[in-house]
Design goal:
The complex is a heterodimer. By secondary structure, chain A is an alpha+beta fold. Chain A is built from nine helices and 21 strands. The chains are: A alpha+beta, B mainly alpha. Chains A and B meet through strand 7 and helix 2 of A and helix 9 and helix 10 of B.
Chain lengths: 352, 276
């Protein structure tokens, strides 16, 4: 285990409640959560830029923060480096000198530091930017220079705060691929903050879902994909998320509706997820096999790529993904009365 | 892709100028003329042909020399003490910081004569501190060149402090945070990041402070008097020459105007381009 952080803070009215974050050798931990959930504060705390009220932060079993023993290691003495959301490239230095900064700070001679910085720029395929200042770099180039600057000191823990936030949609996949390669070829662990589920699932070995200063779920991408524990996590994955009490082989929802599950008996508090593409819509009450049939009204219609997402209010909210031709055939508009059907086998139920 | 700055420029090119209200035209013309006419009058009355002989007079040279010594000395003192003070004001938070800031800025708006009286009461022979300076170190400030230099410092220092403080504040703290996480110690960060980013503000603050020190009159005459060759700087010389040698007073004034224009030109980036 490289990084072990157990953090509780209360600074400037902003709280982190017993955040637990553990990263093994060569592991990338992704913190995902809505804006204001405290993700950046966690990174700043690990970097030593923010203090903690209680808890413990260790890197390679060396204490970085331990308030009970008044231990606090200054940021410059921690084996970390951080790439901030705004990149913070030094405006008066060339790309090479930006990258060389960390080496020079640790006493490497300028000439040698510059050579190694240029090597790193070459590795990230931006050696052509070596002499340029930050204001002469494109968004993607700035991103790579900032990454190079953070990588060159070979930190034990690399902290990345929304590394792609300033990129447009076409550049993101390229940068994601580059970052994945850079992280894979590195010794040490990385902590990445994002609110983009694609990034989280693509880069994370372990996901930590945060909300309002708390960790609401920790797990591998597969665990979170199959068993999201919060509406936020389910929303990220684009899944219908229902909670209720086990009854027979299904779930009794808060409004009294019974949701039939695939067959195994369910007891106690439980969650259910349903893929929106497994939800069908009908103008007339459907005959036949689906066991879950509810009536409701269309609440919202939203185009989503090559299909349309229809939100139906059936006492609870449920989303259905349908084709554009289906919308026309069903003559759906907001407030249209509608029937919703879901096969019991398409419902996944798991305990809370 | 059109950069947003470029876009607004394109918009401005074709914008129709709105017609100005007549009162705006009248009063803006009055203000402009009021500020420009005195300078023109001075330049028009200047004895250009005798300029060199008037200024090569030993008394004039002495006043010019004293002015340079006092103003440059004041600028130097302002730099070595004002930059750290600006740092404290911009980057720390303690009880009474706002009060300290207000007191530091006070000499900006305080009538210099009152400043001179205050300096006298502090550093005069019988002053609060002056008594000890005199008893312990035999240091006399009133009516000395050092006193004139301190009077100039008193009025000039706040210009440097507020300019450099604004400079500190304009540097994003996240640069320094980034530098720390890259393993840089505070002194290294100051040398390689903060200082280079701060340099333009320090230069601007120093030029402003120097210009203010050069023109200093009220505090100097009150605290240091007008002793030719010791405390009689250019502005004092102009004032006392006006009675019996107006030609020389005008010549010296022209020198001051030329220096001011030089300051303006050197800071044009900062002042002549509004809200960059």
């Amino acid at each position: 285990m490289i990084l072990d952080a157990r953090i509780s803070t209360n600074t400037n009215g902003f709280c982190l409640h017993e955040i637990v974050l553990v990263a093994e050798e060569n592991q990338t931990v992704v913190i995902i959560g809505p804006n204001g959930s405290g993700k950046t504060t966690v990174l700043r705390t690990i970097a030593g830029l923010n203090g903690i009220n209680s808890g413990l932060v260790t890197i390679d079993d060396v204490e970085m923060d331990n308030p009970t023993r008044s231990v606090w290691v200054a940021p410059e003495n921690r084996p970390v480096s951080m790439m901030g959301q705004s990149l913070d490239l030094f405006p008066h230095l060339s790309a090479t000198d930006n990258v060389a900064f960390g080496l020079e700070a640790s006493g490497v001679k300028r000439q040698r530091a510059r050579e190694r910085a240029n090597e790193m720029l070459r590795k990230l395929e931006i050696v052509n930017t070596a002499h340029r200042r930050p204001h002469q770099l494109s968004g993607g180039e700035s991103q790579r220079v900032a990454l190079a600057r953070a990588l060159i000191t070979e930190p034990r823990v690399l902290l990345l705060d929304e590394p792609f936030s300033s990129l447009d949609a076409t550049n993101r996949p390229i940068m994601r691929k580059m970052l994945r390669e850079a992280l894979a070829s590195r010794v040490g662990s990385s902590v990445l903050v994002t609110h983009d589920p694609v990034e989280a699932l693509a880069l994370g070995d372990l996901l930590v879902v945060m909300d309002q200063g708390r960790v609401t779920q920790t797990g591998t991408p597969d665990e979170i994909r199959s068993h999201p524990k919060t509406r936020y996590a389910a929303d990220l994955l684009g899944l219908n998320f229902l909670s209720g009490t086990g009854e027979g082989d299904g779930l009794r929802l808060a409004d009294g509706t019974h949701l039939f599950g695939p067959g195994e008996p369910v007891t106690g508090e439980a969650y259910a997820i349903i893929r929106p593409s497994a939800v069908a819509l009908h103008r007339e009450r459907p005959e036949g096999s689906p066991r879950n049939i509810w009536s409701g009204v269309v609440a919202n219609i939203e185009p989503l790529g090559n299909h349309i997402r229809v939100e139906v209010d059936a006492g609870f909210s449920i989303m259905a993904d349908v084709t554009i031709s289906a919308i026309t055939a069903l003559a759906i508009a907001p407030s249209t009365p509608i029937f919703v059907s879901v096969k019991a086998t398409e419902v996944t139920i798991y305990p809370r | 892709m059109i950069h947003s700055g470029a876009k607004s420029k394109i918009g401005n090119q074709n914008r129709v100028q709105p017609r100005l209200p007549i009162l705006v035209i009248v009063f803006s013309s009055l203000a402009g003329l009021f500020l420009i006419i005195p300078i023109l009058a001075l330049l028009q009355r200047a004895p250009w042909s005798e300029m060199t002989s008037l200024l090569s007079d030993s008394a004039a040279i002495e006043a010019l020399r004293l002015s340079l010594v006092c103003s440059l000395g004041a600028t130097f003192i302002a730099l070595i003490t004002g930059v750290p003070l600006a740092w404290v004001l911009a980057r720390t938070d303690f009880r009474g910081r706002r009060l300290l800031r207000a007191l530091v800025i006070l000499p900006l708006i305080l009538p210099p004569v009152a400043g001179g009286v205050a300096l006298l009461l502090a550093f005069g022979r019988r002053g609060l501190v002056g008594e000890y300076l005199s008893d312990w170190f035999g240091l006399q400030l009133p009516f000395t060149t050092l006193g004139a230099m301190l009077a100039a410092t008193f009025v000039a220092l706040p210009f440097l402090v507020i300019t450099v403080e604004a400079g500190f504040r304009s540097i994003d703290r996240s640069y320094e945070d980034a530098a720390r996480t890259l393993g840089a110690k505070p002194s290294f960060i100051f040398r390689r990041i903060t200082f280079p980013l701060l340099a333009p503000s320090i230069v601007a603050g120093a030029v402003l402070a120097w210009a203010r020190a050069l023109g200093e009159f009220g505090a100097t005459i009150t605290f240091a008097g007008s002793v030719a060759g010791r405390t009689q700087t250019l502005p004092l010389a102009v004032f006392f020459d006006l009675g019996f040698d107006p030609e020389r007073a005008i010549a010296l004034s022209v020198v001051l105007v030329i220096i001011s224009i030089g300051v303006l030109v050197s800071l044009r980036e900062r002042w002549l381009t509004p809200l960059r």
